[in-house]
Amino acid sequence: MTIGIDKLHFFTPNLYVDLVPLAEARGTDPDKYTIGIGQNKMAINPLSQDTVSIAANAALPIVSKEEAELIDMVILGTESSFDYSKSGATYIHQLLGIQPFAKAIEIKQACYGATAGLLMARDYIKSHPDRKVLVIGSDIARYGLNTAGEVTQGAGAVAMLVSSNPSILILEDDSVAMTENVFDFWRPAYSDTAIVDGKFSNDVYMSFFKNIWEEYSKRNNLTFEDFEAICFHLPYSKMGKKALLPLLESETDETSERLLANYAHSTLYTKEIGNIYTGSLYLGLCSLLDHQSNLKAGQRIGLFSYGSGAVGEFFSGRLAPNFKDALLSSEHQQLLAERTELSISDYEELFSGSLPKDGSTFILPTSTDPAPIILEKLTGHQRHYLRK
């Protein structure tokens, strides 16, 4: 029996900021954004989209009525939760009409949460091969206006349906994880924006990849030659390349060129959306599968997950037979093509807006957001969603 990702879909809100005019407004050379960190646009969420609605929109196209009856777990990985107690997965469970005798939980460990959920789902399916698990990484990255991290903001979610005999990626049981208590990036409960030590965070990320890769290679007797591609958690599109390049210095030209070419394919969606935290690694996987037409069944794809604070993990999967038939590439590209660009002034006004925190009733417009699921209103400290 094989286990892995049977269906895969991402969602991002319909608004974005182009980073060239943002750079000009900030008095910065646009090349610093578009070349230096490798980003073109960043997704912006209207108030009608939050972590839950973004997640539900990502999952909606891959959860049919029949599959909703087979899902035993809904796992939401996020660091953008708006409730210290109630799981965002409980809302998603209802919005997608999933059968009532299912678990719904939320996992937090910075950008690593969705990976924890994915591997938990794999282990569950081992014992329940006729059932399915829905795993979603959903986040809204916020650093504040005119801050060092502003250009690496973003919003989006990636949903994965995990099952036996999967259609897209067969997960191997080969993962190696690592934990270290560090303060490279964190967000205290009293803060709406994250605190980040940018250079230190980059250094920790690169160190984690090197140490985990070396241990993974030793335990599994695998080298870079065994991989067709490696996908990375991408807070911005250049980050994974910084970690990979030093380790490729001793590799053959053929191996290095293959991995770097496929790395470029894996960054294309990140360039257009920005950092989506827990979903970032899997957005890279979507991008690789949607843009690299030369991939073949049976090829091994490496996945490096990293969550600040810090937890990292490297694991792999093999492309399933006929995996291309299960991809939603045209839907992904249409979603990006239909977005609306915000002026810098409109972006700043929207970013500065907020939902009430005093329990008062607040009604959001339903006609300005084309997404099928939106946050409709707040009443008595409760959020209510509309599935159109």
TrEMBL record:
NCBIfam families: HMG-CoA-S_prok
Family: Belongs to the thiolase-like superfamily. HMG-CoA synthase family.
Entry EC no(s): 2.3.3.10
Protein name: Hydroxymethylglutaryl-CoA synthase
Domain Hydroxymethylglutaryl-coenzyme A synthase N-terminal: 3-165
GO molecular function: hydroxymethylglutaryl-CoA synthase activity
Keywords: Acyltransferase, Transferase
Residues bound to (3S)-3-hydroxy-3-methylglutaryl-CoA: D29, Y143, K242, N275
Residues of the signal peptide: none
Example of a GO biological process term: acetyl-CoA metabolic process
